[in-house]
Amino acid sequence: VVIDTITAFTLYRACDSGIWKSGDAGGSWTKILENPSASKSRLAVSSGTLYVGLATGTYTNALFGSSVNGEVYKSTTSGASWTDIPSAHGFCGAQCAVSMVVALHPSTTRQLFLGGVDSSSSSNSGVTISTYASFDPPNMVMHSGQNAVAFSTSNSSLIYAGTDGGVYKSVNGG
Asked: How far are the Cα atoms of 38, 47, 111, 165 from residue 68, in angstroms, in the given order?
């Protein structure tokens, strides 16, 4: 469950059947996005902009044969309409059904963080996405299996990443 940063009574939740929205602090819920083929989903919201990451495909084993594909969709209408972000397709690799992160920097809706096997970010709302930490040498700076991203409230350059291998800190905004 994520809370809209503009309207505190507006909540969003992701579950197997879809993405849901509540305008009354969770008293009632309305489905705003179907995701019938997704095995996992993650949400991020900031200033009325909503991103959802979906793990689609079939998961068999993270190391030995998975056809899971990460997809990301964006809504600037509080979930009334959605736009596919093609540059994010496959963002979480074989880890999608196990570990997946979609996060927005709290100071801007344009800085998007995505994680799975590798860690990626976009400074332009997903138009282009760059990998900043890879599980493959020589770029292996943190463990794969991204599970969480947290931002410091006092320093916008301080970001924490929670992975299957521990917690990592960036002091330069990722």
From this structure: 9, 30, 25, 22
pLDDT at residue 137 is higher than 70? no
Q: In degrees, to the nearest 5, what angle opens at C-alpha 150 toward C-alphas 40 and 79?
A: 50
Cβ proximity of 68 and 39 under 8 Å = yes
Give 78-88 pLDDT, tens digit per residue: 999 999 999 98
**Based on the number of CB atoms within 10 Å of its own CB, is 139 exposed (0-12), middle (13-18) or buried (19 or more)?**
exposed
Q: What is the pLDDT of residue 24?
A: 96
| The model's pTM | 0.85
Name every residue whose Cβ is closer than 8 Å to that of residue 143 and which is 6 or more positions away in sequence.
Answer: 135, 163, 164, 165, 166, 168
Q: Sign of torsion, CA 50 51 56 60? A: negative
Residue in the structure block whose two tokens are 């970001």: 159
Q: In which order are the strands placed within the sheet that holds 119-122? A: 101-104, 112-115, 119-122, 130-133
**Structural element, H or E, at residue 18:** strand 18-22
| Cβ pair 92, 99 in contact under 8 A | yes
Q: Which two tokens stand for residue 92?
A: 């979480």
Question: 166 vs 94, 143, 163, CA distance in Å?
Answer: 19, 8, 5
